[in-house]
Each structure stands twice: as C-alpha cells, then as structure tokens.
Amino acid sequence: MTRPSILFILLTFYTSTPAFAESDDALPNLLPLSVSTPLLSEAEAIEKNGFPSDQVRFVLIDESAGRVLRSNLEDRVSIPASVTKLSTALRAADHLGLGSRPQTRVLMDSAGGLYLQGGGDVALDPAGLEQLADDAAKIAPARPRTFVLDDTRFERRSLISPVFDPTESDNPGVGALALRGNVYALRVRKTENDFETLTADQTASFRTVRNENASENGEMVTRDPRASGDLWRLNANAVRKLLVNKPVGAEVKVAEMPMRDAGMVAAELFARALRARGVNVPDPVRGATPSSAQTLAVRSGPEFSTLLRRMLEVSDNAYAETFGLLAQATTTEKPAMPQAAAGMATWMRGLAPEQNWDGFRLVNSSGLTTDNLVSPQQMASFLRAALGRADLAPVFDLLKRTQQENAVLRAKTGSLNYVRALAGSLRTTRDSSLVLTLFINDPVRRAILNRGPGTPGYKEASENSGDWNERSLALRGDLVNLWSKEL
User: Fold this and answer.
1) DSSP assignment letter at 53
2) Mean pLDDT value across residues 158-163
3) Residue 314 sits in the same domain as residue 232
4) Which residues pair with 19 in a beta bridge?
5) Are 263 and 349 members of one domain?
6) Do the beta carbons of residue 360 and residue 345 sit within 8 Å?
C-alpha cells in the first residue's frame, strides 16, 4: 500500500448537520404569558428589526375554519429554503408510508453473478454492509463471476446543487445506494513535515487511505480517486478548513467532506467485507439486476418515520433528495431530481386544489436552491390540507417543537444567506390552532451572492449577510411571540 509522505490521514464515516450556506436554526423561544410583548403589531416588529415591509411575507390561518387571521403580502412567492423539506416529508409519508423501511438487497443471477441493489436507505452504514456480507457469504459462491452495483432505482447525481459550494458536506452526491448520508469525516494529524505542505493535488495522488482507529468502522480503503470517480478527493475547501486549525503534534483535526459517489464507496466496502469472509468477488461495476435474480440477503433500514424525523430535525439535504426520488419512483421509472420536484409540486396542488398556485415552482426536494418559489398562502393552504388527513397529520409530530405554558409551536425552519423561513402549526396561549408560514427574503442581495465573487456588489452583500441573518432571526422571534399571545 502506498503511504502518504506528508500526512497520515484517517477516514471515518459519520452523519453531519447542515453547516454552510443552508443551516437549520432552532425554533424561536416562546415567552411565558406573564412576560408582556412590547410590540403591538407586525409593522412595529418589522420596523424595529430594520426590514422593509415587502421583504416580510406571512399568513396565519385558523386550522379548523380556514380563515386568514394575519397576513402581509401572502400571495407573493418567496424562496422557502429548507421549509421545502416539510413538503417532502409529507409526500414521502403519502407515497411510501411512515412504517415502511427502505431495503438494500444482495441478489445472485443464474450464472453466479452477485448484485448489490440500493433501495434508498440513506442511513446505511458500514455495520449494515457487514451484516449483509455475513448473510450473503453463507449462500454466495466462493468465486462469483461478476459483482454489480445496482443503483438504478433513480438517477444518480454527483452533487445536489451546482450553484452552491460543491466542496461542502451539505452538498453531497445522491444515489439509490447511499452511505451514512453521503458524508464522511476526514481526520488529519501532522507527522514529520509541516501541515501547510498538504495540497489537494497531493491528496488526489494517494493510492490508498487507511483508518487505524478501527474501533467502530474498521479499516477503510479506497482506490486512486483519479481512477474511481473522485471518491475521496481532498478538495481545496477542506484544506482551508484544516489549515485554520492545524494539528499540533499527534492531535487529530477533522474536516467534513461530501461523498460524490457514495454508492461505489459502499460497493467497494461490501466487496472487501465479502472477501474477508471467503467470497472472492471481483471489483464492482455498475449495472441493473435481472428480474430472474434470486435474493440472498436483505438489510432493512429504519422506518421512514425515524428517517423523516432526522431529516426534519437536522435539515439533511441528502435525506430530503433521496426521499423525494423514492416517492417519485413509485410512479416513474428511474426518476431524476427535477422529475421528483415536479411530481411533488403536482401532488401539493392536488392536495389544495382551491388554492391559486400562480408563481409556484419546485426544482428540488431539499430547498438547497434559490429557484424554489412558493407564497405563504400556497404553503399554508397545503399544510392545512395535510393536517386534515389522518395519514399525514402524524408528520407534524416529527417536527421540532417549542412550548411555553399552553402555547406550542411545531415547525420547520429554513435559511440561506438573505433567506429566512418558517412553516408549521401554532397553538396560541388562547388555545387557537393556527397554520403559519413566514418568509423573510432579500431577493436582490441573494441574487448577487448567486452570481459569485467578482460581480458588482458581491463583497458588500457577503460582508453584510451576517447582520441580515441575525436581524431576521430576531424578527422571526418577535412575530411568533406576538402571534402566540395575541391570536
């Protein structure tokens, strides 16, 4: 095995929370009834936090009667960010069922070829692959003729969004065979040379990478990234992260890394596990499983209720896109992400057919885009319809919640720079049950950021985004507390 001459690199899998352009913040705290709300109106809250009124769009609807109680520009579409994931969760519940489980299968054809078939279990981990190998090795031939990775359930993507940073863990690849949310941790410690000498090019030349901290996941090896689809390549952004906090002595530092092709990584790990059990499989190649193949082993993932809860709580983009594709795959052969988004948009319209859907658009299922557009009224009407269905209402119990006395907020948040969103249900201190949607968007400065560095206004927009984000959080809290006490 070729050893790196500069650094010793350790790889372990884990699941990250969103970290870069899209982050899922906590719900606003509800104030006790004894604490008076100093603001008398939404207009005062908006002015206090320094926003023009046209950047703040919201609607509150009485859940039972459908009556609009408070609103501002509720018919204008805005960027929903990760509020999109609430729609994705509801559609997954409808099409897949909260109690069902995604499955990963090992099959064999009549000629002795093996197939590892992905079923969209985005939480599949190395331990699950080991269990599959245990079961399959009992039946599989000692020398299978071929070993095929079948991730044809839906179209594979090497990253979720081409607009957002491709080196960040929130923007990994998506495929029917996944591995721990398609994110891994790169651990680095300094040896004899200075850490700054590490470069992306040097890392790309590493033939193999070993994990000697094997207590959880065992040894992990990958081929040369140049020959196997850029599986582990250390990108420039990860180098920057590690340089900020350089390892000292034997200290280990970590960078969060996206996997571009988690399916091939999983197939290679599975092949190694089979070889360790006496099944000498060849290297994996991609293909489709013939209908006549016989099942040797099955690994069932967690129930979708558990997976959806995680997606909603940590706003995991890979989970969301996978669930959107799985839902679309129930009606479309090998769907792609745009088809899944279009299918969800059609389903949402069908759930609230009386609503005017002008301007509504979805291009993905996670919200990692500025091209998704929905108005507060459209979103609230859809959520109210979902709450009225016995099979969909339990999804709202999977949301984060905050409570103060008898006031309860259950909602999904969403945020990008210059985008803040909130949607869900609110039970007020007066026992009113409301559906709410709130979007705070600055579309002009968000569009400047989308155009990238070097464009007019980019530096100023980038430098001011932190202040805007803080003020939008404060405004969101002020509005929710006003509503929880006054309605």
Assistant:
1) G
2) 90
3) no
4) none
5) no
6) yes
Question: Three-class SS string for 56-92?
Answer: EEEEEEECCCCCEEEEECCCCCECCHHHHHHHHHHHH
**pLDDT beyond 70 at 265:** yes
Six token digits for residue 153: 């359930």
In the DSSP assignment, the letter for residue 299 is E
Burial of 333 (0-12, 13-18, 19+ CB in 10 A): exposed
Q: Could you tell me what percent of the chain has a pLDDT over 70?
A: 78
Integer Cα distance of 189 and 428 in angstroms: 52
> Has residue 345 got a pLDDT over 90?
yes
| Nearest Cα to Cα of residue 417 among 451, 381, 441, 393 | 441
Answer yes or no: do 287 and 343 share one domain: no
| The pLDDT of residue 214 | 28
Q: What pLDDT score does 71 carry?
A: 97
Domain CATH code at residue 362: 3.40.710.10
Identify the residue whose tokens are 């988004």: 341
Task: Looking at the structure, tell me whether residues 109 and 76 fall in a common domain.
Answer: no
Tokens of 381: 């009407």
Beta bridge partners of 117: 105, 150
Per residue in 89-146, pLDDT (tens digit) is 999 999 999 999 999 999 999 999 999 999 999 999 888 999 999 999 999 999 999 9
Domain that holds residue 62: 42-97+305-486
Give the Cβ contact number of residue 138 at 10 Å: 11
- Which of these, 436, 484, 444, 433, lies nearest to 468 by C-alpha position? 444
Rounded to whole angstroms, the Cα distance separating 343 from 369 reads 17
Based on the fold, state whether residues 54 and 176 are members of the same structural domain. Answer: no
Instruction: Note whether 108 and 440 are within 8 A (CB).
Output: no
Among residues 262, 280, 301, the one where a domain terminates is 301
Tokens of 313: 């709580």
The DSSP symbol for 247 reads -
Could you tell me the pTM of the whole model? Answer: 0.85
292 and 393 housed in the same domain:
no
